[in-house]
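ok so i was messing around last nite and threw this chain in just to see what happens. nothing serious, just curious
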Amino acid sequence: MSRARTRREFLQQSALAAGGLWAGGSRAFARTQPANEKLGIAVIGIGGQGAWNLNRVAGEAIVALCDVHESRKEVIENRERFARAKFYNDFRRVFDRKDIDAVLIATPDHTHAPAAMMALKAGKHVYCEKPLTHSVYEARLVAETAAGLRRVTQMGTQIHAGGNYRRVVEVIRTGAIGAVGQVHVWVGRAWSGGGDRPPETPPIPAGLHWDLWLGPAPYRPYHPAYVPTKWRGWWDFGGGTLADMACHYMDLAHWALELRHPGIIEAQGPPAHPESAPPWMIVRYEYPARKELPPVTLTWYQGEKRPPHFAQGQLPEWGNGVLFVGERGMLLADYGKYVLLPEKEFADFKPPDPFIPESIGHHLEWIEACKGRGTTTCNFDYSGALTETVLLGNVAYRCGEKLEWDARGLKATNAPEAMKFVRRSYRPGWAL
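result:
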């Protein structure tokens, strides 16, 4: 066997491992089921992103639907479309049914973990939107539970199934820009509650089960500043722009560079508000060396903030992006394209022959793995660690401390006060 071929196979194996396709992939978790049978799927949250997800699993047997907002247009339409599916308002009533093989969760962040844990404990396979959970502790618990129960899992980082991400991973892994020591990730979106809770207490809209929408979160009166879409800007329900978008964009760096847990996390932004997320924030994550790979510093920017390379005229104005800085150059990527920089120095660059298989589709990966064949690329082992890392940026920001993070112990060794942001409490009836 030639040396080139040996290296090719090594790179392929390591790339698959980084994406959750090799060791720890979902093949080991899949239960026996004839591949030509349709899965019995329950979909929790069928408006907004949930409606989009529902469309992508609609070819299976949709046996149960659940949503707390009965009067929402998409909820009404999907109930009519899947009239044979039993409808629920409270997802806690769904999981005992024997005709449910798998559960798709597309609720606001604060109910991800309770729904996922109930589904896993009931023996169901789980697809859950990003971020996997609302807190760092929940991400670890959900991932460990899924592994222990050998369930097929997938987090909804759908861009992971795209071809461009695979090509970027291949280019980085084959050393086109040399060893990478820095990554910069930026997103212009700015989810923020804007400050204090609104003082008004308007009536709850007909068809909205407000207490069920709150779920495990502390009680507060209804206000349209939260429902249906603005909840991301409030700490009790979401995690701002970081929790919304970093699982998509930081995923590329985690995959390409085999990152998992940072050792240092430091954040800056406007003064932290106890209720609402900030309009801008910068977070620096420091990762240790991984075998032969060097330490990496990943810096996240949101809102109006950008890496200094823009002011220095080194980057084109692409909008959101990921910049890998290597010893021999840089790679700039977004969802659909990438470029090596400076371009004149890479004018003769030939990308490696593709060695990461194309995805059959993010949802279809999960469906096929549930039927006992294929794998998922964002199983909860991989995506749980990614979610932990993302949410630690919010912990550092809210805590106001540079965190020295003990990933194994799930604690900041220098800042015990950070624990109140690592793990949250729940209203009675919603404990994990």
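not much to say yet. The chain has two domains: 3-160+362-378, 163-192+237-356+386-422.
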